[in-house]
Amino acid sequence: MKFISLFTRMGLLALGFILVAVLNEESVWSEPSSTTPTTSGLADSLLHDWGFALLALGLLMAMAMMGAAYLVRDERMENLLWEFGGEEE
């Protein structure tokens, strides 16, 4: 297990170094972009290009919230009796 943890940490460190090296290239920053981003362009791409992905993400988030709510429930006898106002038999 420690080997997997060490391997994962080394992989993340290597990925960080690669990202820094790529972003520090002069060719990335030498030419300015031809168009400037706008809010209407963002809205258009979110609703038309990424609509299905956002729907799937929303479904996953809803399932995660339902699962968390189910796991938090406390079903010990004293809590159930207090919640429903019954008495122990």
Please state the structural category: mainly alpha
Strand content: under 5%
The largest sheet, given as strand count, sense and whether it forms a barrel, is:
none
* Oligomer category: single chain
> What is the terminal-to-terminal distance?
49 Å
In the residues, how many domains can be counted? Answer: 1
H/E element string?
A: HHHHH
Number of helices: 5
Helix content: over 70%
Mean pLDDT: 86
Low-confidence stretches: none
Shape: flat
Radius of gyration: 25 Å
What's the total number of strands?
A: 0
What does this molecule look like?
This protein has 89 residues and is an all-alpha fold. It has one domain (2-27, 48-84). The protein is 76% helix and 0% strand. It is built from 5 helices and no strands. The model has no long low-confidence stretch (mean pLDDT 86).
How is the secondary structure organized here?
Layout: H1 2-23, H2 26-30, H3 39-49, H4 51-72, H5 77-84
Label this structure with key terms:
single chain; 5 helices; mainly alpha; 89 residues
Condensed summary:
This protein is mainly alpha-helical and 89 residues long. The protein has 5 helices and no strands.
